[in-house]
Task: inverse folding
């Protein structure tokens, strides 16, 4: 730990206000996600705990507000604040799981394409190109018409599109790594190919992935929000932040703005925090020449 | 059997050609006669012959693009040769697959040019140095011996035990080259292929590494194939020298013979171009004109004729073969037959 | 003495350029002084990290944060460049002082034709009209040995080989008729036969145009053939200075002696090369006293206490050493 605090990374971190703000926002959401259920009184998905009399209460600073529900309530008496905390859990869950799956699949395919080259490389890259021309919305629609909606379908749609960036990046890094002399030295030492990939190529292609993965979580949260907004995302029983926005959208123009706007602000802050920190990481992890 | 032992390395007609351009889809072209698939070939090494005896240091010199690095990597079986024979300690390994090569790897190792790219930045020094040895150990007992051997190796190259746990970026260029040498020595090979091992080092460190390599040769009876573009380094360390141009060996001679009586025009041009710190060194002035041709389309006949000050029509028609001119010197040049054309 | 007769083109006095990094202050150039007269070639010699490239960049004002010129003077015909503003420096760059960089691959913009890059220099630094500029570019390309110059002006850098590109870079450096050319390892990346051509070319051009040159390199052999006088740098300090032949034949500083001895030369017949023991000290943590003392065979107690100043020794040589070598000493 002390090595981290004395490192150049930490030195630059302290001097970058955007990095600190970004990570503060991320930490806030991480805490919200972990501790959420314990700090809000109401479980917004427990029908029994809801009271229709509490419906559509405005935020506490407006007339008619109730200090028990500081950001207001929705049409069924759900506390907006509690919904945001629960919704953020789902959004982040989806974002993280899809990111991990994409990273795993993409990295594996990228390593194989870059290392072995030839036909394998061509095939994988052409599939990647095709994949990129399908927006995830289209894939989600296909899945919905075939097998219905659900969090798993969302994850599949996101992963199907998300792996490509890892594969491309890793393939590029792999192509340059295999020219490196220490890879040639491993060949001369008699290492078999799979060991060369595992011990020499993989550890050295991981660094740029950290930045991609970080920013992709934010990207996935946004895509999932769009999917849910269009109705092909998460089911109503497990509303993510996106679905919350949609639910509130119907009454947005009657002046009951808080059920839509606050989840929107929450998404914005989450993704903004991720992007800020991701930018800092990208500059930091960039191999510096001399 | 009282035959003389086989040379450590015996290379015959070694050829290495690379086809460029990616997969079939990338090579598709549309010409006047319709679609065709191009097959550009880089002829990096074109029929090279030489031997290295045990304990001998042979240097390969030439400028960029001459194929010397490719020869080194082909001999070390990083590439599989596209033609010719490659005998290591008597055994032809040109066609060997991975399993057959493994025992040969214990006889032949390599050290590389770039001290910053030849060590995996994520590996500790002890793991780097042990890697070739670990591929050769089969039993647990053998593996238990490895750490001690690594310590001894590090000491032999002038590093100490505490360096074993560090990472490459904590070392200077010269120290990194030493780590590379220790790695090559770990399997006690008979032949070390050294690809420009001192070119990336400062002059004062160069001297240290060259001395080390010589000491190791004296102690272990190592043979070296020493690739370099620097004639003065080669003069210091080599027993015999081969000069390469565009994938061909144009001259091969023992060191003193090559430097005092170079025969091939390219060798003479190289010697005259090398800057020297001593004033008034007895220098023949041969200035080359023009550019090095591309290895994608070699000139007909002698590959050097486009820049040779003496070229005449025979040079375009007929490729000269390497011929023995005595004292262990072989030259590939038509001037041998018509020395009156040598007017300089 | 010669110095009072010839007008000094460039005088560098006690230049200090430091880099403030996370890991400490790197004193890349720490008190460097030298003079160059018109028409002279000075070799600036040292090993990697010795600060020699930084000297060149400092003269042209090309030092960016975290680096900064902390002190000293750079007098170009009496005008102090350290105090000159960016606008004045821009006038000087390319016109009075130009630079040839090491890597011909990256010193030319791959997206512009060679002709456009050459034309740019003349547009900035001369009053010639379009036709006159074109003619000047053609003439310059031909004089650096590129045939079919008018045609080649329309080509892009990647269409030239390494040696040709370096000729183009030299042509650009010479176009505005600078009085001083700073050449930073101009031939290190080139093959030895091409290197020999380029060096001959540079010598000819300098002689014809009466320019001066600072040749920055680690290659003592190259410098011995090109330079009139040599300045040797070690860890940011000048350790020795003097006319070329004197310095090479009988240097006064043990480091110079060590450098010369460790060069394998075609006329040496030693079995073992003399090597300088040890390694270059960490430039963020220089030892007290003389920087070279840990590797010097002549070091005594005083060397660890007091840093030696650059003092005239014999003939044209000055050295910074408490126990300089006499001719005939082998260190």
Result:
């Amino acid at each position: 730990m002390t090595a981290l605090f004395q490192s150049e990374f930490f030195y630059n971190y302290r001097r970058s206000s955007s990095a600190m703000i970004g990570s503060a926002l991320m930490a806030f959401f991480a805490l919200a996600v972990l501790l959420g259920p314990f700090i809000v009184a109401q479980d917004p998905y427990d029908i029994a705990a809801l009271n229709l009399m509490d419906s559509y209460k405005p935020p506490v600073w407006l007339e008619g507000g109730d200090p028990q529900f500081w950001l207001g309530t929705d049409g069924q008496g759900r506390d907006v604040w509690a919904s945001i905390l629960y919704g953020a859990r789902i959004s982040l869950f989806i974002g993280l799981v899809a990111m991990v799956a994409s990273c795993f699949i993409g990295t594996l395919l990228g390593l194989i394409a870059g290392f072995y080259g030839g036909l394998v490389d061509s095939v994988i890259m052409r599939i990647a190109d095709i994949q990129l021309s399908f927006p995830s919305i289209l894939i989600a629609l296909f899945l919905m018409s075939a097998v219905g909606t659900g969090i798993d379908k969302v994850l599949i749609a996101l992963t199907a599109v998300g792996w490509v960036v890892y594969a491309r990046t890793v393939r590029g890094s792999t192509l340059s790594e295999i020219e490196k002399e220490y890879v040639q030295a491993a060949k001369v030492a008699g290492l078999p190919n799979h060991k060369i990939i595992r011990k020499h190529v993989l550890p050295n292609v991981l660094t740029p992935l950290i930045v991609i993965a970080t920013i992709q979580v934010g990207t996935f949260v946004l895509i999932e929000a769009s999917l849910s907004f269009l109705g092909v995302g998460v089911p109503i029983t497990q509303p993510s932040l996106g679905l919350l926005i949609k639910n509130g959208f119907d009454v947005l123009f009657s002046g009951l703005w808080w059920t839509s706007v606050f989840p929107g602000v929450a998404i914005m802050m989450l993704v903004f925090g991720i992007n800020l920190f991701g930018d800092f990481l990208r500059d930091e992890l960039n191999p510096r020449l001399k | 059997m009282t035959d003389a032992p086989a040379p450590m390395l015996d290379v015959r007609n070694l050829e290495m050609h690379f086809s460029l351009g990616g997969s079939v889809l990338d090579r598709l072209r549309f010409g006047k006669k319709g679609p065709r698939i191009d097959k550009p070939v880089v002829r990096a090494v074109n029929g090279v012959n030489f031997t290295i005896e045990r304990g001998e240091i042979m240097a390969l010199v030439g400028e960029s693009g001459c194929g010397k690095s490719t020869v080194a990597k082909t001999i070390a079986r990083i590439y599989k040769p596209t033609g010719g024979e490659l005998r290591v300690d008597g055994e032809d390994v040109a066609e060997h697959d991975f399993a057959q090569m493994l025992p040969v790897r214990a006889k032949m190792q390599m050290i590389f040019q770039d001290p910053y790219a030849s060590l995996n930045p994520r590996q500790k020094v002890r793991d780097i140095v042990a890697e070739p040895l670990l591929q050769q150990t089969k039993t647990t007992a053998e593996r238990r011996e490895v750490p001690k051997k690594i310590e001894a190796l590090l000491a032999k190259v002038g590093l100490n035990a505490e360096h074993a746990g560090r990472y490459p970026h904590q070392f200077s260029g010269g120290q990194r080259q030493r780590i590379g040498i220790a790695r090559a020595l770990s399997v006690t090979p008979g032949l070390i292929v050294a690809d420009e091992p001192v070119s990336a080092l400062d002059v004062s460190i160069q001297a240290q590494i060259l001395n080390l390599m010589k000491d190791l040769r004296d102690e272990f009876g190592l043979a070296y194939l020493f690739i370099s573009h620097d004639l003065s380094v080669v003069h210091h360390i080599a027993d015999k020298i081969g000069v390469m141009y565009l994938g061909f060996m144009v001259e091969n001679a023992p060191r003193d013979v090559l430097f005092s009586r170079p025969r091939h025009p390219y060798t003479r041009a190289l010697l005259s171009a090398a800057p020297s710190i001593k004033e008034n060194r007895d220098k023949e002035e041969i200035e080359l004109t023009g550019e090095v041709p591309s290895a994608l389309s070699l000139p007909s006949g002698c590959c050097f004729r486009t820049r040779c000050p003496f070229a005449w029509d025979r040079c375009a028609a007929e490729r000269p073969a390497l011929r023995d001119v005595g004292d262990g010197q072989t030259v590939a040049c038509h001037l041998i037959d018509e020395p009156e054309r040598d007017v300089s | 003495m010669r110095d009072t007769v010839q007008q000094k083109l460039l005088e560098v006095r006690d230049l200090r350029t430091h880099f403030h990094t996370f890991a400490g202050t790197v004193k890349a150039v720490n008190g460097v002084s030298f003079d160059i007269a018109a028409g002279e070639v000075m070799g600036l010699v040292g090993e990697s990290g010795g600060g020699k490239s930084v000297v060149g960049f400092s003269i042209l004002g090309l030092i960016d944060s975290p680096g900064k010129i902390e002190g000293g003077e750079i007098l170009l015909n009496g005008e102090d460049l350290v105090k000159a503003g960016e606008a004045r420096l821009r006038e000087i760059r390319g016109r009075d002082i130009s630079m040839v960089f090491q890597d011909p691959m990256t010193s030319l913009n791959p997206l512009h034709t060679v002709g456009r890059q050459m034309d740019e220099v003349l547009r900035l630094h001369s009053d010639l009209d379009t036709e006159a500029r074109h003619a000047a570019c053609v003439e310059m390309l031909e004089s650096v040995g590129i045939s079919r110059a008018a045609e080649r002006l329309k080509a892009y850098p990647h269409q030239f080989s390494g040696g040709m590109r370096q000729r183009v870079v030299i042509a650009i450096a010479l176009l505005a008729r600078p009085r001083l050319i700073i050449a930073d390892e101009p031939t290190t990346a080139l093959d030895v036969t091409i290197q020999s051509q380029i060096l001959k070319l540079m010598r000819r051009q300098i002689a014809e145009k009466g320019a001066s040159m600072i040749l920055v390199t680690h290659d003592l052999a190259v410098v011995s053939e090109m330079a009139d006088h040599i300045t040797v740098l070690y860890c940011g300090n000048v350790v020795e200075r003097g006319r070329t032949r004197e310095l090479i034949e009988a240097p006064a500083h043990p480091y110079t002696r060590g450098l010369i001895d460790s060069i394998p030369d075609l006329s040496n017949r030693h079995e073992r090369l003399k090597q300088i023991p040890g390694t270059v000290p960490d430039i963020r943590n220089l030892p007290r006293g003389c920087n070279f003392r840990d590797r010097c065979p002549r070091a005594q107690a005083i060397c660890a206490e007091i840093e030696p100043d650059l003092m005239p020794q014999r003939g044209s040589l000055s050295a910074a050493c408490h126990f300089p070598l006499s001719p005939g000493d082998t260190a």
